[in-house]
Amino acid sequence: MFKRLGDSGATLTLSVDGRSIRARIGDTVAAAMLAAGIDHCRTTPVSGAPRAPYCLMGACFDCLVTVDGVGNRQGCLVPVREGMTIETQLGKREAGR
Amino acid sequence: MAASDYDVAVVGGGLVGAATAWGLAREGCRVALLDEGDRAVRASRGNFALIWVQSKGLGLAPYAGWTVRSSNAWAAFAQALKEETGLDVCFQRPGGFHLALSEKELEARANVLRRLHNQPGIVDYKTEILDRSQVAKMLPDIGPEVVGGSYCPLDGHVNSLRLFRTLHTAINARGVKYLPSHRVENITKDDGEFRLTTSGGTIRAGRVALAAGNANMRLAPMVGLEAPMKPERGQIVVTERLRPFLNHPVVTVRQTDEGTVMIGDSKEDSTDPSGLTLGVSATEAERAVRLFPLLANVNVVRTWSAIRVMTQDGFPIYDESETHPGAFVLCCHSGVTLAANHALTVAPMIARGALDQTLVAPFSARRFHVQEAG
Q1: Is residue B273 part of a domain?
Q2: How confident is the model over B174-196, as pLDDT tens digits?
Q3: In terms of domains, do B207 and B320 share one?
Q4: Which of B242, B292, B293 shows the shortest C-beta gap to A92?
Q5: Which of B63, B275, B287, B342 is least enclosed by beta carbons within 10 angstroms?
C-alpha cells in the first residue's frame, strides 16, 4: 500500500492486536500502522464502520487507537516506542481504559 | 372576534413554547410560534436534559404533584412524537440518584427529603435514602467516597437536542407557523384580538401564550401579567463517547443514549451566556471523578455555559390575564421535565380559553404579593 522513501533509520518493534510490526524511530503510531499495511485502526461508535488514519495532523480523529491500554488516543500524534502495545479501537471507548 | 391570522400566538421557540404549540395544534388551533433570531439567549439548547422529580416541591407541595404528573405522562408523550415524526427522543426512566460523598451530605439530603415529605398535601413520589451497598447494586462503578444517596424511580432523562428537533418537526408537520426573527416589541389588544408588534412585522392572534423563558419578565406586563424571574448561569462538561456504564442518571452526571457523559449542575449569579469559568468546570469534573473514578482519564470534548430560566422562587408560573382575557403566561425552570404537561395539559386549557384552576391555581404569580399585602 504505502512505500517508504529510502530505508535509513533505526527500527523498533511494537505490537498491534497481538501481532509484531517493525517501525522506524520517529514514526507516529498511525504512520507505522499504515506502513505495515494495516487497513483500519478503529471502528466507529455509531455504525461500526472501519476507519483508517486520514488527515495525519491531529484534526480528523479517524486514527483513534488504544495505546498501552488507554482508549481513543490519536495515533497520528503519538510517537512509537519500543514494546508499545496497540489495539484497534472498537467503537466507543470503555470508561477506565 | 376579528378574523385574526392565528388562533394563538405562542411567544418563545424553546422547549416550553414548542411543546405548547404542538399541544395547541393537536387541539385544532391555528398557531404561530414567534421566536427571536440567532443572537437570542437559548436556554433550550444548553440544558442538562433530566426528567427530574426528586427534590421538586420543597416550599410548594403542589409542584411535586405537577412534576410527577409530567413524569408519568412522558412515555406517552414521547411515543406520540415518535408516531408523528419517526424521531426517537430517547426517553428513559430508569430512576435517578442524588449521591452523597460524606455522611454529612447524606444527612443533609435525608433532611431535605423529610421536610419535603412532611408538607401537607404532598404526593408520594417514592424517593428513598439508600446506603452505599444498595446504591452499588444499581451503580457498580461508584467511588470509595460515596456513602449513599437518594433514589427516585420516577426520575429519567431524554436526548434534549433531539427533543427540540422532534418538537419542531412535529409542529411543522401540523401546520404551526414557525416565525424566527420575530422578537416581540409590544402587544396590544384591540377589537378582541391581540396585535403583536415584532421585528418581523405585526402578527394578529385571538390569544397569546407567553413562553419566552426569562424574557417573559419583559413581555408579561404588556398584557397585564407578571413574571418575576431570576436567571442564573450553569456550566456543563461533556466527555467523549463511552461504552454504557451508567444505567441511571445522577443529578450531576448522566450518560447519554449516544455514550457521552454530561457533567453539570453548577449555579452562578451571572447572565452572560458566553462566559466559562474554568474553576467551575474543574470543580464539577473533580466531583464527578470522586463519584465515578473511572472517569478520571476520560477526554473532555466540549464545555459550555447556558442561562437557566428561573422564576424568583424557583416554582413555575401559569397565569391568565384579568385585564387582557386570552393572554397566558408560562414560566418554569424545567422545560424538559414539564414538556409533557405543557403539551398534554396546559395547551388544551389555552385552546379552551381558560386555565383549569384545580390544576394550576398554586402556580399563579399572585403568590409573590403575599408579603407586599402584609
Answers
A1: yes
A2: 999 999 999 999 999 998 999 99
A3: yes
A4: B242
A5: B275
Would you say the C-alpha torsion B116, B118, B124, B130 has a positive or negative sign?
positive
Residues of B in contact with A89 (CB under 8 A): none
Tally C-beta pairs within 8 A across A and B.
32
Q: Under an 8 A CB cutoff, do B241 and A92 touch? A: yes
What residue ranges define each of the domains in chain A, with the CATH number in brackets? 11-90 (3.10.20.440)
Domain that holds residue B138: 96-153
The pTM score is 0.91
B207-219 pLDDT, tens digit per residue, is 999 999 999 999 9
Please, which residues have CB within 8 angstroms of residue B144's CB and are 6 or more apart in sequence?
Answer: B293
Q: Is the dihedral of CA B74, B77, B81, B82 positive or negative?
A: positive
DSSP B162-212: HHHHHHHHHHHHTT-EEESS--EEEEEEETTEEEEEETTEEEEEEEEEE--
Q: Three-state SS for B3?
A: coil
- Give whole-number Cα distances, B259 to A41, B239, B262, B300, in Å: 20, 9, 10, 13
SS3 at position B355: coil
| Partners of residue B241 in chain A, C-beta under 8 Å | 45, 92-93
